[in-house]
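ESCALATION

Customer reports they have been waiting on this structure for their group meeting. Please prioritize. Original submission:
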Amino acid sequence: MVVSMYYRVFQQASMANEFLRQTTDAALASRGVSASLKATLQQYRAEARFLRALSYWHGIDLFGDIPLVTENDPVGGAPPKQAKRADIYNYVVSELTAIQAQLPAPGPSNYGRATTGAAQMLLAELYLNAGAYTGTPAYSQALAAAQAVISAGYSLDPSYRHLFQADNNTSPEIIFPVESDGKTLQSYGGVTFIIHAACGGSMSAADFGMDYCWGGTRLKPEAYLRYDLVNDGRASFFYTTGQTIAVSSIGNFNNGVAAPKFTNKTSTGAN
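Update from on-call: job pushed to the front of the queue and completed.
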């Protein structure tokens, strides 16, 4: 899992770097790109820089010191050296600050894209943990960035369950989604896996808007017992009928409490 996450940090950063290399003013001029397409690509470049910043935040949050590679580093050159966590933090903050005016505005027409609200939210995350990344807290900056997100029109969804339903694209809380609606993304991973794998035993697949269960993921006892099962509303997601708390056999779906959070049903009950 650690190797996979480290790989994904640099997979996305590398793809963003290559897009930026291929869309410089000089590269576009040499290809005869029109002025209107060039203007569109400038916005895409800002979104690519956001995705790279997001990856580098994942990197410093999970691993600390990591290499920093940008579009200015030659492909196939010498292996990059480790950069200090604080230096990458400063780089990511500067990138997010620089691109905000070029990012698309929040709203339904830009759902799934990196908007100014997404940049502010990522800045809030960075500032909130600045003490760990750099040794110097930045709580006032975190507050200002979070307030900017709220001012952009985002708010907590009155229904926690709605965040995990098939029409959660209408939720006022979701800022930067990875769209997994069967139209934008079709895969056996993503939400397909999350919904199918969390269903099994005596559970009904139809209750989750699908045709069959995979019988995979359950909670470890330590996770299940951390919840206040009486007063914590999140415990309503747990499915305990026919399930044991202890997991004596991973291959037996009835060992371990099921936690089917995501569903292919909408908030009105439609598939």
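Sent to customer with the following note: The two ends are 33 Å apart (CA to CA).
Escalation resolved.
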